[in-house]
Amino acid sequence: GNSVTQMEGPVTLSEEAFLTINCTYTATGYPSLFWYVQYPGEGLQLLLKATKADDKGSNKGFEATYRKETTSFHLEKGSVQVSDSAVYFCALSVRAAGNKLTFGGGTRVLVKP
Amino acid sequence: DTAVSQTPKYLVTQMGNDKSIKCEQNLGHDTMYWYKQDSKKFLKIMFSYNNKELIINETVPNRFSPKSPDKAHLNLHINSLELGDSAVYFCASSLVSGANVLTFGAGSRLTVL
User: Does A43 touch chain B (CB under 8 A)?
Assistant: First the structure.
């Protein structure tokens, strides 16, 4: 079956620190990969995605590269801000499975001034 | 204007009661979903409706009954609530069925005592 594993939080950082959130997956078929973010009091929203191996998704200073050889899609940001405090969810979908999203457990990130 | 809104945000009730959670989207999307976030924070799909028609029904007890009066609304009714139903329930929508980019509501936290 399909599954996503991401590091457990919370991750606490100071402003301007480097952020990495690890995500690995198992999938039958060729998945598309996603990072969703949930800011406090809001619903999840798409942060970035990649649809094939070696693709890099990027948005709002965040990046993640689809690594087929290591089945990973780690999220990185070079210099975090307090406004990046949120819960980050890694997810995948497989076309053969109707494109249903399979989510990881979420990683809470807290950025302190 | 909230794109996907769900009510109530918090719901505390006794075992055996019947309760409903309502969801509305103003995005003009064709497809709506209900996800359940368990105690380990994993999001799992429960139901998906496309233009009022049920298209995904995962292994969910039949105490859970979704209702879609029109394509902008998808309500979740739960009969005979059990302790294990305590969770955060997320409504979401997508432009079309099979899309893997979803817009989520802020979640409804259900606590069964």
Answer: yes
Dihedral sign computed on CA atoms, order B13, B102, A106, A62: negative
DSSP count for chain B of H helices, then E strands: 0, 11
Tens of pLDDT, residues B46-77: 999 988 888 888 878 899 999 999 999 999 99
Nearest by CB to residue B106, choosing from A42, A46, A103, is A42
Tell me whether strands B108-112 and B10-13 are parallel, antiparallel or unpaired: parallel
Q: Mark which residues 1-20 of A lie under 8 Å from B by CB.
A: none
Q: Are the Cβ atoms of A43 and B105 closer than 8 angstroms? A: yes
The three-class DSSP label of residue A82 is helix
In tens, the pLDDT along A33-53 reads: 999 999 988 889 999 999 999
- Name the H helices within B6-111: none
